[in-house]
Write a structure and sequence with these properties.
single chain, 791 residues, alpha+beta, six-stranded antiparallel β-sheet, six-stranded parallel β-sheet
């Protein structure tokens, strides 16, 4: 039987003449921090102080004994970041140049000093650029010249911390006669039965020995003989339970066990979990353009998505528990699709296991983002090798439903001035329209592939045409008011978003001792977007009087504006289902403490946007919007069953007077949207009036103000605060707009169970608080914020 010996202990990192203890998996930065050589680059402006680390070469070493009674011993690296030479007692085992691949070296009978020498990623990238020529990119760093996590080189939300190290586990594998080298599982459904086809590659030490494959799934067993170096085992499992996205059904998973046998002896075992489901991508043309609708088990979905970036700029620190926590946060917000963005990595099995369990669909980008990538060697061979390995590695996961060729590169070629600059040089098109679709079609024909995001499906149309395929909506954040989200109905919005700073306690930890201001040195350092603060302020000024010299107020209002902006988009696009078939918010998470588009900040704290997502991505949603000089109420029902709410419409004054009221009965079919014209007499007549729509039995509410907040003559908010079991109760005496408890101001470990809430006079809300050590009503009042009259 194959035996594995982990090699996580006993490593050192060579730093000048010193030998520092090293953690494996890990990276140079985390080892240097642990040894006290460098400061934490997440704190203050520490990032700048450690820039030299990425420019250096580094060596990891340990003693290795490969002696074994078995016939062969392999040294296996699951991940090396990125360009390295591996040697044993001075004997070169190999050279590697791809963070996204695993590596295996025969070390049978060898022992001595194992050395992994990493060359600076900058040096490698600059050497490749020198040979192949300059290629344009969104950022000045040379990330497109090597196969490494692009956002190591910085992004408009991430620090520039160019890593090196043994970032995934390493081990010795001892084996005899044969081992399972690769298993490619094709999982399909046929008339209620689950079909599992396991295509197996075998490596041998003795070619003449007869070998057998035996597999078991769901109580069904099958055998097949190995023919040379491979074989195929097919199983048909009757009456399987289907795996569904969350909100559509359950997520049953089946254990698969595959054994490689020599007679009755098991030489190697491969175990995974699979789920039975079908997935299609409906891209048929229609009266509105070209659709982009995911269909799972025959059910057409409006995808409630978020974009995922690496959860730490040092990905070796992301544990199974951390993946689970972050993805449970996503599921808790109503998310059913997570897009793994192309400037990051193929995530670990722990990520996809959690998505399988939670019913989160995974859209997986291949790692290409915002740059022209050369297609010559050595990159071309590396791209195909990494794609082949990772497509097969991730195939068992039912959560994985879509392969995507790149992020924004097809769009950039057309719109970002690349075409004339390239002057015919390769830039990646051959990957997205050639290599990658060929690899997916050959290895994983059960899943759809799309060439890029955004992509209209053809060069005959603009790559980011909202009427065709996927669309990225960034004009609004960059140049316009978020109300402009309502001016178009894309077929699928794969990126859009609005910035806000992280939670107060996160800023306090990241910027110790700094007097916080929107433009204080630390705040500006932790704002990576081009003119990010300018865009924040201009976006805020369209709706509020921008507070000057009041950081707490600025912090609150930018959080409100972020939640309002995202709500404007999602409410509008969901109301246009099935023309629009999904929204994928930029972004769920952060990789360090930073002002960004994230709903969960770099310390894992939920922003108000996170709680707003819970409303926006719930199965049922009410939204009011202007149309043809009047107002329309959209009742969105993404649940399977019919919804028959009685809606109460109230036209009110900001002083709390009800100026008109009407009850409206609505019937909304399952997975459908119903639109109700608001009677003219209930339409607000001026800035001092607003409209409220309630579905009381469901606890749903929509509020419409006809003018921006800065023009609304709000009364001075009055409310009472009292302790309640597990939290506080707030009772409004006036209109209280967008009340927010910032629980982390009470205690860094405290969390509130809800975000922004609007209360009418006489209404009350109970806000749950956990992690608050010393509850006190007056302290709670000091952490409550709401919209106030313009001074």
């Amino acid at each position: 039987m194959l035996q594995a010996t982990p090699l996580g202990d006993g490593w050192i990192l060579r730093h000048d003449a010193d030998a520092l203890p090293a953690s494996v998996p890990g990276c140079v930065h985390t080892d240097l921090m642990a040894a006290g050589v460098i400061p934490d680059p997440f704190l203050g402006r520490g990032e700048s102080e450690v820039a030299w680390v990425g420019r250096r070469d580094w060596t990891y070493e340990r003693e290795l004994t490969a002696a074994s009674a078995q016939e062969q011993t392999d040294l296996v690296f699951d991940g090396l970041d990125t360009v390295a030479e591996i040697s044993l007692d001075g004997r070169l085992l190999g050279k590697v140049r791809n963070m996204h691949r695993s590596y295996r070296f025969d070390v049978t009978g060898l022992s001595g000093r194992l050395s992994v020498r990493f060359v600076s990623a900058y040096a490698e990238a600059e050497a490749v650029r020198g040979r192949l020529g300059e290629r344009p990119a969104a950022y000045a760093e040379p990330y497109q010249y090597l196969r490494k996590m692009a956002c190591s080189f910085g992004w408009d939300w991430g620090p520039t911390l160019v890593t090196a190290g043994i970032w995934r586990p390493v081990r010795l594998e001892h084996w005899s006669t044969g081992r399972i080298a690769r298993v490619r599982p094709l999982v399909t459904v046929d008339e209620g039965a689950g079909i599992v086809e396991l295509a197996v590659d075998v490596e041998r030490t003795r070619v003449e020995v007869p070998l057998t494959l035996e597999a078991e799934v769901g109580g069904v067993r099958a055998r097949a003989e190995i023919d040379g170096a491979g074989g195929v085992v097919r199983l048909r499992v009757p009456d399987v339970r289907l795996w569904w996205p969350r909100g559509y059904g359950e997520q049953p998973l089946y254990d698969v066990e595959l054994r490689l046998l020599h007679g009755d002896d098991a030489l190697d075992v491969w175990r995974r979990r699979i789920g039975f489901r079908t997935v299609e991508l409906d891209r048929r043309p229609d009266a509105h353009g070209t659709g982009f609708t995911l269909v799972v088990n025959g059910e057409r979905l409006f995808a409630r998505g978020v974009n995922w970036i690496p959860d730490d700029v040092f990905p070796s620190r992301i544990t199974r528990e951390r993946y689970r926590e972050r993805l449970e946060q996503a599921a808790g917000a109503g998310v059913d699709l997570v897009r793994v963005w192309g400037g990051g990595i193929y995530e670990s099995e722990d990520f996809y296991d959690a998505c399988d369990d939670l019913g989160l669909l995974v859209w997986q980008d291949f790692p290409f983002a915002c740059a022209a990538y050369p297609e010559e060697q050595p990159l071309r061979g590396e791209v195909e090798a990494e794609a082949r390995e990772n497509v097969v590695r991730l195939m068992p996961h039912p959560s994985l439903v879509l392969w995507n060729g790149n992020n924004e590169n097809l769009w950039a070629f057309r719109d970002w001035g690349w075409e004339p600059r390239l002057a015919g040089d390769s830039w990646g098109e051959g990957y997205y329209l050639g290599v990658l679709p060929r690899v997916v079609a050959e290895l994983d024909p059960t899943r759809p592939y799309t060439a890029g995001s955004p992509w209209s499906g053809s060069w005959d149309r603009h790559p980011n045409d909202p009427a065709h395929g996927t669309h990225h909506s960034w004009e609004v954040w960059n140049r316009e008011d978020y109300a402009d989200y309502r001016l178009s109905v894309p077929r699928f919005v794969a990126e859009f978003g609005w910035q806000a700073p992280p939670a107060y306690a996160t800023l306090r930890r990241a910027l110790p001792g700094e007097e916080l201001a929107s433009d204080s040195p630390g705040m500006l350092h932790h704002q990576k977007a081009d003119d990010g603060n300018g865009k924040l302020e201009r976006g805020l000024a369209r709706h509020f009087a921008v507070p000057k010299g009041d950081f707490d107020r600025w912090h609150y209002l930018t959080q409100v504006n972020q939640a309002r902006a995202v709500a404007a988009g999602i409410e509008h696009w969901r109301s246009h289902w099935p023309v629009c078939a999904g929204t994928v918010l930029w972004q769920l998470n952060d990789c360090w403490p930073v002002t960004s588009w994230a709903a969960i900040d770099g310390d894992g704290r939920e922003k108000p946007l996170y709680h707003e997502l819970r409303r926006l991505y719930a199965d049922r949603l009410l939204t009011l919007r202007a149309r043809d000089g009047g107002l329309v109420l959209a009742a969105v029902n993404q649940a399977a069953g019919e919804w028959t709410p009685t809606l109460t419409l109230r036209r009110m004054s900001v002083d709390g007077e009800v100026l008109g009221q009407e009850a409206v009965a609505v019937t909304v079919a399952g997975r459908a949207v119903a639109h109700v014209d608001v009677p003219r007499e209930l339409t607000p007549a001026g800035p001092a009036e607003f409209l409220v729509a309630d579905a009381d039995a469901d606890g749903l509410r929509a509020v419409h103000f006809p003018v921006p907040d800065r023009e609304v003559p709000y009364p001075r908010p009055e409310f009472e605060v009292a302790l309640a079991p597990g939290g506080i109760t707030v009772t409004a005496r006036t209109l209280v707009r967008d009340l927010l408890l910032q629980a982390d101001r009470l205690d860094p470990g405290a969390r509130a169970d809800r975000g922004l809430v609007t209360l009418l006079p006489g209404e009350e809300v109970t806000i749950g608080v956990r992690g608050w050590k010393t509850p006190d009503a007056e302290r709670a009042r000091s952490a409550l914020y709401c919209v106030e009259p313009t001074r």
